[in-house]
Design goal:
Layout: H1 2-7, E1 10-13, E2 17-22, E3 39-44, H2 50-57, H3 65-71, H4 78-83, E4 92-97, H5 99-103, H6 107-128, E5 137-138, H7 143-146, E6 150-155, H8 195-214, E7 215-222, E8 229-230, E9 237-238, E10 242-248, E11 256-261, H9 273-285, E12 287-288, H10 291-294, E13 297-301, H11 311-324, H12 333-336, E14 349-352, H13 355-362, E15 372-375, E16 386-391, E17 404-410, E18 420-424, E19 437-450, E20 453-462, E21 471-477, E22 482-490
Parallel strand pairs: 1-4, 5-12, 11-13
Antiparallel strand pairs: 2-6, 3-4, 7-10, 8-9, 10-11, 14-15, 16-17, 17-22, 18-19, 18-22, 19-20, 20-21
Helix pairs in contact: 2-6
Amino acid sequence: MHDLISETIFKHKLRIGKTTETGVFDNKMANGGQDQEVAQHNLKFNRIGKHINRKALDKVEFYRFSNLKQFFPSLKSVDEFLTSDDYLGEVDIEIYGLKDHLDNLSNQDKYEIALDVFKELANKIASSTTEYIGTKEFKKYSICKVVEPSKTGEVLIGGDDKEFGIAMSETTRDDLRLSLNDHDWYMYDENYGTSEEKYFIQFVRHAMNELKKKYMDIYLLRNERTFKIYRFSDGRAIEPDFVLFLTEKDTKKALSFQLFIEPKGQHLLKTDQWKEDFLKEIESHFKIVDLFESDKYRLIGLPFYNEVLKKQEFKEAFERFLTSAGSKKDKSDLFFSDVIPKATIGQGYLPIYDLQAVATTFKEQATPSIKGWKPMRKGRHLNKDMFIAQVVGKSMEPTIPDGSWCLFRFERGGSRNGLIVLVESRQVSDPETHQSFTIKRYHSEKEDLGGGQWRHKKIVLSPDNKEFKDIVLKNVAGDDFRIVAEFVEALFGGKKA
């Protein structure tokens, strides 16, 4: 936790000017920013003034001493937290603003700087001690409901990146200047971003003729705190700077693509590497919540864009997308071709559920939402306990290939030893999904406690793929472990258990 404080770069921007981006759904013109000279000043936290720091600290409830002790057990007092070199004392704050203002900071300025730092640090401390797992499911939203028709905000003109806050149509740089109001593929009328953002927009402009050969409905959206996506492994949030929307031409099934893109300054390439790693994961792991949209969309994350250091890598990845996207088909397209939105078991169809929804709603005695209905072969006996769900992971291969759509039967009691089952328990953590449910081959030893009470003395959940280890649970109470369903067979690319 001490490293979290010492390694964090705290920045504060003094208010200078305003810019406005407009034009997603209207034809209003954007307002230009103010061109003012900006300087940077570094300030040690303990130079602000103890009384000012204490006043700002008292405004943030997180910093109650009893709460701080939970995160810093060796802390002796709030004063130590504020002044000691082991905590905030020697922390640097980078302050940006007009030089005259920086040379004459008022107590009110210092108070706002301290308060800004305290709020940022509280969020970082709290988030670093909370464990999350990000979902791989993406939900659809109408753009007009989440993107504001116009945006107005206070920005710093200049600073480290002299282009930030300068309208792209007004920059003095010939290689960056562009009147976006003349290009209907850009969803705002103006861009006030960094030089790397402007370089990227120019990249898209030069690629537009090639894009239009294969795609229609091409739009580039700058994501200014409009939405976040969350890393699969721990739920850490990222706001991709841009999303490029495209829809294929001349295909029987209109296939739309959403490309998440981050132009990145050289100084951030290393510290934000985790973001690039996550963006590259999206294409192979995403799931659309609505099944009937899942075969109409592809989500793709691209490498960082940096004009000097990474442009070639980005260009190669972008070109691979152009050459392969049109011909790349999901391996389960054929499986979904006969799925319909409404049907009944009596008509020879079975419901398709999300496996996580089945596992988590079962314990609440709720019914998961049906994502579609799949016709089964004629003559097969069907009943209300049967359903279809996708299994992701390699631990049950070769019996259940990764990504297979499988037939399950809700748990009906009786002996399950040796059977493959879907189980849910707070004591379970699947080695691949890290969720509290898993699909494994089941073995159990029970212990009679008398008086009609019993418990699982030992439960062994075994993978068929021996590269994975058994999950062993001991002394499990009956109400802390549930067998939700029994695996019957893999319907697409697998075999019977």
